[in-house]
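Sharing a chain and its predicted structure for anyone who wants a worked example. Both blocks are below, sequence first, C-alpha cells second.
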Amino acid sequence: MSDSPNVALARRLYESGMAPEVTAEVLAPDLVWDITPGFPYSGVYHGWDNAAKDFFGRMMPNFTSFGAVPEEFYDTGEDHVVVFGHYRAEAKTGKDVDVRFMHLWTVRDGKLAAMRQAADSHVLREAIDY
C-alpha cells in the first residue's frame, strides 16, 4: 500500500534527516513548531529559521548524535498526519537516550505548516542534566 500524499510529505522530511534542501521544499514559510512544555527549550517557534536557530541551535550542542526515528505514520484524512516514533541520541554526558514522541503535523497547500510535539521530556532532561 502506498502512502497518502500527506504521509509521503512527512516521511520525506524524516527520511532526509532534516536536510536543508528538503526542509526548504516541504516546510511552509509560516511554519509553527510547537515543542511540549517541560522538554528542553520548549516553546512555540515561528518559521523554520527560528526553530532551527532558537530550538535546535540551543539543544543540539548537548548531544554527540541525535535523530528522530519515525515508526508509524497515520493520515487523519483532514490535513493532519500523526507520527509516532523515538528520539535516539547520545548526550555529551555519555548517556544514551531513547525517548518516545508523537508529532502532529498540519498540512496546508502541500506543505508541512505546523508540528505539535508530545514527548517524554523527563528522560531527555535527565540525560543532559538540563
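Comments welcome. Strands lie at 27-35, 43-46, 63-75, 80-91, 96-108, 111-119.
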